[in-house]
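hey so i finally got around to running the thing on that chain from the lab meeting. sorry it took forever, my laptop kept dying and i had to restart like 3 times. anyway pasting the input first so we r on the same page abt which one it is
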Amino acid sequence: MKCDKIKELLAGYQDGELDAQQLETVQTHLAECADCREELARLNKVKEVAGKVKYNDLPLEVWESYWQGIYRRIERGLGWIFLSIGAIIMAAVGGFYLVKDFFLDPAVALIPKAGVGGLIIGGSFLLVSVLRERIFAYNRDRYREVQR
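ok and heres what got predicted. didnt touch it at all, straight out
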């Protein structure tokens, strides 16, 4: 068999992925061909070097100091505060116009008002229920203090 065909099979030979016939063919050729043995030696060296390469991640201490930094905590806290204030303002304005333009409008029938009111009340109860459940689970989480 020509060296070009054997060189195509060398990576599979190196990784043990060849079937019995291919394995025998490659081994027979390697016993006779010094060039292909050298190529296999180069592939083995590349595999060895690549196996030693490690991703250099930041140490855990660096990440802990980053997240515990006062600037980061203030930044995150302010973000949540402004988001909450904006959501409260938008909900209040939306609620005002909903009452003014929908519930107090005598042209709107009672049934749509009851339907929208039921959706709002039901959604509010569900939201409060889910929030209470999440707070309950958070307060009883035994692994909350465990660091990753």
